[in-house]
Every structure is written in C-alpha cells, then in structure tokens.
Amino acid sequence: MDIVLQSISGLDNFALYFGISVLFLFVFKIVYAFVTPHDEWKLVKEEKNVAAAVGFGGALIGFAIALSGAASNAVSIIDFAIWGVVAILAQSVAFALLRFTFMPKIAERINNNEVSAGVMLAAMSVSVGLLNAACMTY
Predict the structure, then answer these.
(1) What is the C-alpha separation between 53 and 121, in angstroms, rounded?
(2) How far apart are CA 95 and CA 38, in angstroms?
(3) Is the CB of residue 13 less than 8 Å from the CB of residue 78?
(4) Helices 50-73 and 77-97, interaxial angle, to 10°?
(5) Structure pTM?
C-alpha cells in the first residue's frame, strides 16, 4: 500500500501541470489563428483541407514538444508558465519565418490545399518545437 501512495504522491502536481498544459494548447490555437492569415479550423472542418490539417497538426505537435520541455525543466509552476509563453512565441516566429522568407506564398498554397506546403509547415513547426525544447534544458 505504501508503494501505491508513494507512486501517486505527485498526482496533484501532475494535475496542475497537465491542466495548465491543456490550457496552453487552447491559447496556442488562438494565438496561432491570429498569426496565420488563413483560418485553419474552417479549412479543416468545412473544406476538408489536408494541407491545413497537416500544417496545423504539425504546429500543435511542435508546440506540445516545446511545452513538454518547459514542463520537464521547470523549477516551479510560474517558471513553467513563463517558458510556455516563450514556446508560443517561438512557434509563432517559426511560422512568420517560413511565411516571410522561405515560402512567402505558404498561406495561399495551404488555402489551395497543396499538401507539400502543409508538410513543410508541419516540418518547420516540429523542428522548431524540438529545438525549443532542447534549448529549455539550461
């Protein structure tokens, strides 16, 4: 019985970090919608746009990777929240970097359901998420 109690002794911290992580995912979705010139939800839900689904899915995965790095390395819940905001900013900058340098027509291409554009957006987002998480291991 002691081993079970010892195992679940961190359940309250898990619930707190997990709850904040889910909240951060919702915040990221809102921020990302403001950063991108196309409406991912409409493209995915109403138009069945695969490029938008792949691109936005990659953005969510990249952000979740970065957020997991923040949770793993945080020394407090405030520290976690600060680095969660940094993760949102880094993912937003990644989209802007892709849009304004490497692929200036990415939004138009995603609107046109060009899957290759969605894959590149997803790859950039996941790559930035991995780098972001690694850089949080100070």
Answers:
(1) 10
(2) 12
(3) no
(4) 150
(5) 0.90
Domain boundaries, the chain: 49-138
Q: Are 56 and 98 in contact (CB under 8 A)?
A: no
Interatomic CA distance for residues 26 and 19, integer angstroms: 11
pLDDT digits (tens, 9 = 90+) for 73-102: 999 999 999 999 999 999 998 888 888 898
What is the distance between the terminal CA atoms of the chain, rounded to a whole angstrom?
37
Give the C-alpha separation, 130 to 127, whole Å: 5
What are the tokens at 81? Answer: 């929240």
pLDDT at position 3: 83
Distance, CA of 118 to CA of 76 (rounded, Å): 36
Q: Indicate the residue type of 19.
A: G
Residue in the block written with tokens 């969605």: 118
